Amino acid sequence: MEHITLLLAIVIVTALVFDFTNGFHDTANAMATTISTGAMKPKAAVAMSAVLNLVGAFLSIEVAKTISSGLVREDGIQPEVILAALVGAILWNLLTWLVGLPSSSSHALMGGLIGATIASIGVSGVDGGVVVTKVLIPAVAAPLVAGIAAFLAARLTYKLGKNVGEQSSAKGYKAGQIASAGLVSLAHGTNDAQKTMGIITLALVAGGALAPGSNPPVWVIVSAGTAIALGTYLGGWRIIRTMGKGLTDLQPQQGFAAQTSAAAVILSSSNLGFSLSTTHSCSGAVMGSGLGRKGGVVRWSTATRMFVAWGLTLPAAGLVAAGAEFVARQGDWGIAAVAVFLVASCAAIWLISRRQVVDHNNVVADEDAGTPVDPEPAGVVTTAIAAVTPPPAGTANEEAELDVKPTLPAKAGAVADPARPAGATV
């Protein structure tokens, strides 16, 4: 192993903590729809996802290269900058987890790294071209591409299965969901574990333990894969609830379409070295598949809160990281202060989360167990759609017949209609 100083050791441990939070923050990406449709039990789902995240970490290092040698200047970065970036990313991950909003761990990390770098050496330390082409453009394109693909896939699955019994179709697609959820988990490990590999490699380069341009060492790959797998097994139940039930109501056909589309987008981007947000891809796919079923709607009130979180991720993590970098550069006492602040903040968020516990027992509606999930408000768009949607055939006539009341006696000499109750208004 390379020569590791105490500061580098602190940075590496903090990076693995971020990787751990990334795991439980993003478990919903792979398993929310599988759990919400009943294809798998919650604990079994997160266990399978954890194993495949670990396997996925060994499949590629292209994204790690983007983080370690493309986003910021290696020669101007000190380990304190990496520590500050991780502080901003971890705190944003935990805050969004607390409120149950699926936001991008990847963008939190990159926002923290950009903010800390600018605070340390200025704007020149950031490669703007890489930020635009490999961060911002994929951030916009990923949910759109995944959403459109999932919409079309959902429409196709319903069309192909229109002559198949509902129970048989649901059973088949639940089995397909398990396979597609495994593919998303594999893709998540391939994409997101690499980001921590990249940040640790950058720290090693900054601390002089590795030469610039080096690939992640094997021990970095193993430790990053293990940390994200452990976090995934813990399960980010609050975000799983939002992703599985808060955005739209999914049937197995839609869940299969959403997961398959998201996995295809994530794996493609990983091979191209794009530091893609798996959260953006999976959220877009869930919304697209929600609209892909006839009569399906998206809860735009929840989606709007999610979009706001997406927009705040880069600047919020960047600002926290910039402040942490300012304190950390003051010397040993500054690094200690940043570390204490991070630990205290994490403990406070955890204590607040204990006021309303969400776990595998109540992550989905379980009326038999007496723990139903409160439904999200439908929102303005969904309410408007429901208001103009015609009722199913026969409903209006049945209600009209039930609502008929005698108001006036029949006219003298009128011919009685045996099909109409006596005294009913004509």
TrEMBL record:
Pfam family, one: PHO4
Gene Ontology MF terms: phosphate transmembrane transporter activity
Spans through the membrane: 6-24, 44-61, 81-101, 108-126, 132-154, 196-212, 218-240, 307-327, 333-352
One CC-aspect GO term: membrane
Primary localization class, coarse: membrane
Subcellular location, record wording: Membrane
Keywords in alphabetical order: Membrane, Phosphate transport, Transmembrane, Transmembrane helix, Transport
UniProt keyword Transmembrane helix, yes or no: yes
Membrane topology: Multi-pass membrane protein
UniProt keyword Transport, yes or no: yes
Family: Belongs to the inorganic phosphate transporter (PiT) (TC 2.A.20) family.
PANTHER family per the UniProt record, alphabetical: LOW-AFFINITY INORGANIC PHOSPHATE TRANSPORTER-RELATED (PTHR11101:SF54), PHOSPHATE TRANSPORTER (PTHR11101)
Name of the protein in its database record: Phosphate transporter
Organismal lineage: Bacteria, Bacillati, Actinomycetota, Actinomycetes, Kitasatosporales
